[in-house]
Amino acid sequence: YFTKGNNQFYEYLSRLLVRLQKNKQIGILVAEGSRQQRNKTLALLQRHNFVTYAASTAEDARNQLAQHKDIRLLITTNDLPDASGMELVDEMRVRYSKEELCIIGLSDRDHRKQSANFIKSGANDYLTRPFYLEEFFCRVMQNIEYIENIEALHRAANSDYLTGLFNRRYFFQKTENHAQQSNEPACIALMDIDYFKNINDTYGHDAGDMVLKTIANLIIGHFAAYIPARMGGEEFCVYLPQITIEQAKDLIEQFRMQVESLSIPFAGNQLSCTISIGLTDQFNGSVTDMLSRADALLYQAKEAGRNQLVC
Ligand code: GH3
Ligand code: MG
Ligand code: MG
Ligand code: MG
Q: Could you tell me which of 41, 56, 70, 214 has the fewest CB atoms within 10 Å of its CB?
């Protein structure tokens, strides 16, 4: 089995190593009243590289969860001194959805009904003691994978496939809330690549894609503190809360110059482009309204000769 020619084994090993590496990023909180049992559970998890946290009371569990944002799984028994396991699960479900925090209830053999009660309270899964080690790990992994799959779905639904930026739908979801809840100043910049069709027509669609990806990376770096998105085609938008229009102007003007000086190598050619921008701070609580204002200003920037900012 260990011979070099056995590719399956090497594949298996490398998958295992990748998994163990991933586990390092996942925090698991073990809430158990009995110190001896708690330490046993913790030791099992540490064997698989998980970052573990321990709580001996419900109060303790609450604090650990508030403090450590990497906790994605809670394993709890029904022997906490200050709350029943079900009460703790009930309480956690008010704060965290099943996708945010997985909960596995651990019950004793002589309290079989507890399994059902845990699930009814909102636990994702349960286990009865004594359990087979393999079953314990299967349940833990299954729940972790559930969380990871949901996260991957969210990422895919919220981002643009080509550039990795937020997509239009998520941009509205994220910014409309902010706009409605706060009375702070905010700016919106709408940017559009100039004569982008020429790049496609001259160098091909892949070259166009390369330019889009390069600009997107530049946006991610330059506007890291704000909310940038790809609105469609060769149009990008940045929502800038808590900033005056003068500050926004400087920031965007810097960005425009960065784009102007770009030289993107592609298939033996050096690609370059410019952008036009419409910027507004006319904040009336609606992102949609701000965007149409920014769009009108962007149109003016195009009319005035492109490669410029109008606000
Ligand atoms: P203007 O300066 O007026 O903005 O001219 P423009 O050529 O940039 O604008 P136009 O709207 O005429 O063309 C935009 C082009 O962007 C047309 C479309 O084929 C191309 N495009 C949209 N999405 C993508 C994409 O994902 N990849 C590539 N390569 N091209 C895209
Ligand atoms: Mg156009
Ligand atoms: Mg364009
Ligand atoms: Mg356009």
A: 70
